[in-house]
Amino acid sequence: MESGYFGIGIFEPKNETNMGTLWRSASILGASFIFTIGKRYKKQSTDTNKSWKEIPLFHYTDFEDFYAHLPYSCQLVGVELDVRSVPVEQFAHPGRCVYLLGAEDHGLTNAVRDRCHHLVQLPGATSLNVASAGSIMLYDRHLKNSLGK
User: Minimal CB count within 10 Å: which of 71, 72, 88, 143?
Assistant: First the structure.
């Protein structure tokens, strides 16, 4: 994997507690930033490490605002149950990317999926808790980077 940076965020998060948990995982597993699209975040007790001191949180009003601000040469990776998704076990993480998770109750819209450079599916036939799904993606990146894959 080439060197670079990565961020992770949630499209229209339903549960703010999940954002705190994801923020903590993102800080521990080396993310450069986190973000929300469509809903603001309030500080949560689930972020016991005070990750807000380590990595920034960005907020975008909607998907178009977010997409217009993707960093140059950065790929968008949607994490979603979709027939086009690559199993995470086979996915080669781009050096510069942003991981996008769907809301707990409706996931990523078809329009958002169509704009992603990659779609990745985690194991299982049903969706995971969004903070858990994000943590698994971040750990997969960390593990593959550590192994040089």
Answer: 72
